[in-house]
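Form 7-S
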Amino acid sequence: MKQAIENRVLDFIGEHHIFTLAVSRENQPWCATCYYVYLEDLNLFVFTSDHDTKHIADVVKSGNYYAAGAIALETRMTGKIRGLQFAGFMRELAGNDLKTGKKAYLRAFPVARLAKLHLWGLEPEIMKMTDNRLGFGKKLIWRRNNQ
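Output:
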């Protein structure tokens, strides 16, 4: 049975538009900051990145498409700390996913019409949100296969 993603997690994702992407090649990690849109129906973070960027080149050259991401609310107030970490497989978008992703991405970031878009998607297998508003260190965990 597929586990539903809590609305608090979906709301947090929708309140933000930048995530940090983490990849690894030959045990050498690399992070990149990416603008994203989230397609709830597909459970897919959509972002754009050229093939010659280090993070995309590392993924393609290594064949390791398993990546992680993080979204953080920047605050110094402990009681308001919120953040999301997630991991899953990424892929370059094609077909209907490309069409849907491009439409959503350009709606969110109209200036991107001026650039050549190379759209990628990251489909989380796990998401963990920390929300201190619910109690110090409170975690909301979602797993695709409810494991």
